[in-house]
């Protein structure tokens, strides 16, 4: 019997205060406890919420790694000035699987503007 | 006697391992008690244990599940699952690892309800007040507010076949030799090498 596994857990609210992938911030940490946790864990993003704090219209990239090591998991998500933008689960996100911490960065930010981001993930493993 | 076995993979959640007047051999560590069931009732799903809040990337201490203790002359049959995203290790009794393989003690996590929907593989029995104990492992980078365990099962009251009013040496001998049927119920784990 194969059942689609869906243990959904939310990540913390992270404030993205610097643009560009060199400033990618961790928005979800992969569960790991060396020597005690049994089995490798991975995650699939099921929901993304963005809140734009006067950052101007921009896009947020979500993936793994930082700077030149950044690998996108999802297409860029629009974030509109002063609005809350919500992606998934009604409009399913691509079920890209990540084995490394999830990171995110905005393409641009108006001076003093920031973007709050929170993601929910399905834990696999 | 189709009733007389453990780990039943039936439709629905859990079946009793013995019915009224059926015989059981209760194993607790090295001891074996031959008894007869004279009462049983179902135990609906309930929260048997909250290990409590657990810091990020931390294993909890071992916590006795006192709510799974049974009264004198009684044994309980339980299946269980966690409702918080920790990995749970079971000890039964507190000093003996359950689900122990040669190189690993297999934990149970929330995925058990997907992978083993009627929880057959979690089945344990508890003899009197010899309760199990649980440990939780939080592999997340955040605190778990609680680590809760849900159990479901049956309560069996038994009478002894080796002493007292229901004493029956001939029947006990027949149970030992397999001439009469009985359910063997293991109410503890077994240490490696025993």
What does this structure look like?
The complex is a heterodimer of chains A (125) and B (194). Chain A has 125 residues and is an all-beta fold. Helix content of chain A is 0%, strand content 46%. In chain A, the strands form 2 sheets. In chain A, strands 1, 2, 4, 8, 9 and 11 form a 6-stranded antiparallel sheet that branches. In chain A, strand 5 and strand 6 (71-72) form a beta hairpin. By secondary structure, chain B is mainly beta. Chain B contains 2 helices and 10 strands, in the order E-E-E-E-E-E-H-E-E-E-H-E. In chain B, the strands form 2 sheets. A 6-stranded mixed sheet of chain B has the order 7-5-9-2-1-10, with no helix packed on it. In chain B, strands 3, 4, 6 and 8 form a 4-stranded antiparallel sheet that branches. The radius of gyration of chain B is 18 Å and the shape is elongated.
Global mean pLDDT of chain B:
93
- Determine the strand fraction of chain A and express it as a percent band: over 45%
Instruction: Assign a percent range to the helix content of chain B.
Output: under 10%
Radius of gyration of chain A, in Å, reads 15 Å
**Count of extended strands of chain B:** 10
Low-confidence regions of chain A: none
- SSE string of chain B, helices as H and strands as E: EEEEEEHEEEHE
Number of helices of chain B: 2
The residue fraction in helices of chain A comes out at under 10%
Tell me the distance between the termini of chain A.
16 Å
Please describe the biggest sheet of chain B, giving its number of strands, its sense, and whether it closes into a barrel: 6 strands, mixed
Shape of chain A: globular
Whole-Å distance between the termini of chain B?
30 Å
Question: What is the global morphology of chain B?
Answer: elongated
Q: Total number of β-strand segments of chain A? A: 11
Q: What share of the residues of chain B does DSSP label as strand, in percent?
A: 35-45%
The largest sheet of chain A, given as strand count, sense and whether it forms a barrel, is: 6 strands, antiparallel
